[in-house]
Amino acid sequence: MTDSKDKLKVWWDGQILNFNEAKVPVLNHSMQYGSGIFEGIRAYETQKGTSIFRLKDHVKRFFRGMKIYDIKIKYSETEVQNAIKTIVRENGFKSCYIRPFVFYYDDNIQLPTEGKMTSLYIVPLPLGKYIENNNGIRCKISSWIRIDSYILPVQAKASGNYINSLLAVKEAKASGFDEAIMMDREGYIAEGSAENIFVVKDDRLLTPSLDSSILEGITRDTVISIAKSDGIKVEERKIHREELITADEVFICGTAAEITPVINVDGINIGTGKEGKITKMLRERYMDVVRGNDHNFEEWMDYL
């Protein structure tokens, strides 16, 4: 991701501003308490021009997260979709990562949110590979347990939720690994620090079910749909820790991470220690879909 934002335009409550003009009070509630709701969306260059992948689904999840936290904004889902398209066009990006964020715009430290004004900004950013290791990554199963709905609503992409993920990925990197894998409180595999996880075993695709305290990922759903269309059997169920070690293949997925092979867990190679054939096939198919080269999934494309 580029660090230069001098020419970047952002959408903020209906206005187009320069990135450096978009400033908020340092005491705003969402920065103090993690009460913001966000989404991560990608736009891709296609033969028909720029397309925002699964825009409607991302915005729908964005609004679900706000409802869970009882955060209200003055815009409809359609208006937010249009705002996202507007700011991508304004920046002239052929491909980018898009971050809509709803937060409380205030300047005091009171915890209750009654009477606080909400604000929405949308920032598109150039983004290539989120995870740089093209040959596969090494993951550590974290000692930090994934939050669950006893603690915080896991189906909302609330900024405060990701402190849990931050601890896990810091631990993994300090131990020489690329990424963390988190378990739920029952000891089953949940997800990565910001990605869903899949296991390939005997040509079947396994992934933790929603009762494993995972985020209901849109990329996860995309992978499941692609796999089923190719005749691959998919099982959503509880996954034991040892099933990762004995898997034929493992990969993680997310809007930013796309599909990334996992070649080692806790120092033990997965399969051959290289990207497996099913992971490679799904990764290539996924990139065809998001780039508009697979007309079987044309309904997911939102062209500018």
Structure in words:
This protein is an alpha+beta fold and 304 residues long. The chain has two domains: 9-125, D-amino Acid Aminotransferase, Chain A, domain 1, CATH 3.30.470; 137-290, D-amino Acid Aminotransferase, Chain A, domain 2 (Alpha-Beta Barrel). The protein is built from seven helices and 17 strands. It has helices at 29-33, 55-68, 77-91, 162-174, 218-229, 241-245, 277-290, and strands at residues 9-12, 15-18, 37-38, 41-46, 49-53, 96-105, 117-125, 137-141, 179-183, 189-192, 196-201, 204-208, 234-237, 249-254, 258-265, 268-269, 301-303. Helix 2 crosses helix 3. It is globular, with a radius of gyration of 19 Å.
Would you identify the regions where 5 or more consecutive residues have pLDDT less than 50? Answer: none
User: Do you know the CATH architecture of the largest domain?
Assistant: Alpha-Beta Barrel
Intertermini distance: 22 Å
Question: What is the average of the pLDDT values?
Answer: 95
Total number of beta strands = 17
Q: What is the CA-based Rg, rounded?
A: 19 Å
Give a quick rundown of the structure.
By secondary structure, the chain is α+β, with helices and mostly antiparallel strands. It has helices at residues 29-33, 55-68, 77-91, 162-174, 218-229, 241-245, 277-290, and strands spanning 9-12, 15-18, 37-38, 41-46, 49-53, 96-105, 117-125, 137-141, 179-183, 189-192, 196-201, 204-208, 234-237, 249-254, 258-265, 268-269, 301-303.
